[in-house]
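Q: Hi! First time doing this. I have a protein sequence and I read that you can turn it into a structure. Is that right? Here it is:
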Amino acid sequence: MIRIDLAGKTSIITGASQGLGLATATALHRAGANVVINYFPDPNGIHAAQAEQLVALLGERAIAVPADIRNDEQVALLVESAVNSFGSLDILINNAAVLRDKTMKKMQMDDWEDVIETNLTGVFRMCKAAAHVMNHGGRIVNMASISAVVGFFGQANYSASKAGVIGLTKVLSKELASRQITVNAVAPGVVLTEMGKSIPETAREQMMTQIPLGRFGAPEDIANAILFLCSPLADYITGQTLHVNGGWMG
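A: Yes, that's right. Below is the predicted 3D structure, encoded as structure tokens:
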């Protein structure tokens, strides 16, 4: 039996208080990794409460750290917290993202800029800060999306941001290869997180007809793919986008 063992490895997962980030943090922790659960410091404290609940559930080797990935100082403190708490940094999962769906006609510049700043520039900020201290042989996994390739109606900002993530992934895989740091992307299809459940029912029914496996994804489906890319089994995989979508793009 092949077992993925990440004991002694330290990971940061952005946007890890819920959804795909939560599932990924849980999978990495079960594999033995230390996990730094990043959450957005929202004024009402909802994300903080969710993150602390996850830390309590996981127990040892897990901490929660607030950071807005649009802010350079907060990103630096997030990376510093990981190193100070666990002594090193080996894995970065760029999961944090926002949606501001509108047609181009109705989309305001704030809608465009908020999504690009979080989903693309935030990933760049995290990669830049983390790569500076990441151990030789580290792992970076960026969350892309099927929307980056299909281009869903009303998602000019989101699709563009996720397509940018795929391009950024390819470039960084080359720039960090000399240190044996692999950089890959995972592009989920429709996953029934809170974000996925917000899709109107009629739209979801139409999407289902495009999926050969006949079901939407579960958060664990995506987390398992990320776990593989973070493991020694993926030592020779870099610069790739792994589509996890039930065969939608088959």
